[in-house]
Amino acid sequence: MPDGGLTGIVAKQITSIDVANLAGVSVAAVSRAFTPGASIAPETKRRVMEAAKTLGYQPNVIARSLNQRRSRLIGVLMSGWNNFGYVDVLRIISEQLETQGYEVMLKSILDREKIVENVGQLLQYQVAGIAVVSEVLPAEVTAECARRGVPIVLVNRIGRGLGNSAVSLDGLHLGRLIADFLIERRHKRVAALRGRADIDFTSDIVQSLSDRLAGTEDCELVASLTDVLGYEAGRRSINEMIANGVEPDAVFCSYDDTAIGVLDGARLDHGLEVPRDLSVIGNGNRAVASWGSHELTTIEYPRDEIIEQTLRILLARLEDPDLEPETRLLETDFVVRASTR
Amino acid sequence: MPDGGLTGIVAKQITSIDVANLAGVSVAAVSRAFTPGASIAPETKRRVMEAAKTLGYQPNVIARSLNQRRSRLIGVLMSGWNNFGYVDVLRIISEQLETQGYEVMLKSILDREKIVENVGQLLQYQVAGIAVVSEVLPAEVTAECARRGVPIVLVNRIGRGLGNSAVSLDGLHLGRLIADFLIERRHKRVAALRGRADIDFTSDIVQSLSDRLAGTEDCELVASLTDVLGYEAGRRSINEMIANGVEPDAVFCSYDDTAIGVLDGARLDHGLEVPRDLSVIGNGNRAVASWGSHELTTIEYPRDEIIEQTLRILLARLEDPDLEPETRLLETDFVVRASTR
DNA sequence: CTGTTAGCGCATTCAC
DNA sequence: GTGAATGCGCTAACAG
């Protein structure tokens, strides 16, 4: 072997000292060359940069973070992986943060019991801030982060009374919108299907939908089911309702996939005609909702606005940790297609 | 204001010195208490942990990384966000790495021109390894990482001759499988639709499919189109083929959504009957493929095996950076449903 | 088993 | 505008 014992010897880390030596300056000069706006002569900077280039030097961000006692890491806690809309939020947030010079440390929320631990690990890495996608944080965690001056923003959840910032949809407003839409089109028997019962947004929808319908003469909420999430669950659910004689003439689903399951269940399993016999409303306006075989009426998810507000709130608190928590509830609207009369 | 000038004062960082003082031990003892397997008396450890708990101490991983000259950060470069299968890969890889004590630094590949820069930023954070989902890296980048002893694994891409490890599907094998499937069912005119032309996996499929069909008497590849990705593109594509008189009796699509677009185009726009007039094959076995209104025959994506091999290759090289790069091509198979005869 | 010491790579004083 | 010195919080090596 030509390279004998050298096999696997990893190149020694190149530090600012190496660059300083080659450029014939001090390490401080190297540091200044890599610090935007630092006080350094153009010629010195040029020589440093040249030396850095020939050596392939990259500043060690870890050392810098330790020294400055702050990092440019943002922790992102992610739930809701089965929702393309939320994954988009993750993607775009990470892309946008990158343009602001931040890096994303991603953590998947496997188990809600472990959130405390998850946040603890993020804090060990001295993250500058935390974004949480579709989950809420225990109050103790929020308090600990506040104590450390690490801002938190919840996305797609509110976390009422927990003391964090949040960006989500206004479920109460949306519930009224759905009620009016159905009443106007002369529906009489409305069913609402959603996933986890503890999600503030969908709870709000069903609550205000229910309230609004209670004020009418002849339109009622005939079913309000939870733990119905996804295509199979939706298809099973409409089958069970029909079998049990519930027979709704309109179904609102908290998720487009569920709604398409209801659509297929009604059509394929019972020969119902949509929307003549049954109107179906989804939520999220995922790509599938627009496909020719579904043509689902659904609720728009204002993704870009959600992201914009999230970043605004987060970045502002990264600048000034003293800002109070802020909750922003966005209004959205229908995308009407062929699944409703 | 009761708290006067103290508003916004952030709690001072709690360090191992604070804990050592409270517990009446040295900082080294604190370090040992938090180092699994370190040589420390149980009683000492107990006192340290107690002090740490009352102070709310968390070790500063940044300082540890600097000291040890290695981090437990893994960079994940992500492309293919529009593919649920690949997003699952991201999710599970991050979850699994976490159980191994690693953290994921996520970077989205916005622009392939910027990959060099992206990897550079990861290296500044002293990542221990890099996983790349559905993209290839320039040879220079691979070389630089090799020089530093930072292992790279490509997922869903091969990157032939670039010197990295990779886990992907065996496209050549799959092309033969598809050819045999179609020949056996007496198809005569096959079309293949895929997205980006430079993806090694789908190129391999079409290549070997084409080769195999060329060896038959009466079955030919009548069209091989690129840049056809997604529902709309698939629907448009089948319309154009029919308008141009190509009239395939079987279409393979590199992506399930594309295939469903073809399905809807054939049925809704041309009144064709599937599979009598046209067989459609997708790829990925996404959830939509199984839905009642589509019933798409497709290629299984062996997600768990992909992830398993990726982690095996990556973790082994994290332990021993001297290991040679390894490429693993997995074989997969059909999920036959109602869209093929 | 434990404490003392040194140093990881950098940014920031402070003199000059 | 520049260099020397200091310390961020921690772990590793050593001596006890």
Question: Describe it for me?
Answer:
- 2 copies of one chain form a homodimer.
- Chain A contains 12 helices and 12 strands.
- With 341 residues, chain A is an alpha/beta fold.
- Chain A is elongated and about 85 Å long.
- Mean pLDDT of chain A is 94; it is low at 1-8.
- The structure holds a DNA duplex (16 and 16 nucleotides).
Blueprint of the fold:
Two copies of one chain form a homodimer.
Chain A: H1 16-23, H2 27-33, H3 42-55, H4 61-68, E1 73-78, H5 84-99, E2 103-108, H6 115-124, E3 129-133, H7 139-148, E4 152-155, E5 165-169, H8 171-184, E6 189-193, H9 200-214, E7 220-225, H10 231-243, E8 250-253, H11 256-270, E9 279-281, E10 298-299, H12 303-319, E11 327-330, E12 334-335
Parallel strand pairs in A: 1-2, 1-3, 3-4, 4-5, 5-11, 6-7, 6-8, 8-9
Antiparallel strand pairs in A: 10-12
Chain A binds a DNA duplex (16 and 16 nucleotides) through α2 and α4.
Summary keywords:
DNA-binding; 12 helices; 341 residues; disordered N terminus; alpha/beta; homodimer; 4-stranded parallel beta sheet; 6-stranded parallel beta sheet
Tell me the greatest interface: A-B, 61 and 61 residues
Give the mean pLDDT of chain A: 94
Which structural category fits the helices and strands of chain A? alpha/beta
Indicate the radius of gyration of chain A in whole angstroms: 27 Å
Helical stretch tally of chain A: 12
Contiguous low-pLDDT stretches of chain A (5 residues minimum) are 1-8
Oligomer: homodimer
Quantity of strands of chain A, as a count: 12
The main sheet of chain A comes to: 6 strands, parallel
Strand order of the largest sheet of chain A: 2-1-3-4-5-11
The first-to-last residue Cα distance of chain A is: 78 Å
The ordered string of helix (H) and strand (E) elements of chain A is: HHHHEHEHEHEEHEHEHEHEEHEE
Helical content of chain A (DSSP H or I, runs of 4+): 40-55%
Query: Strand-residue fraction of chain A?
Result: 15-25%
Broad shape of chain A: elongated
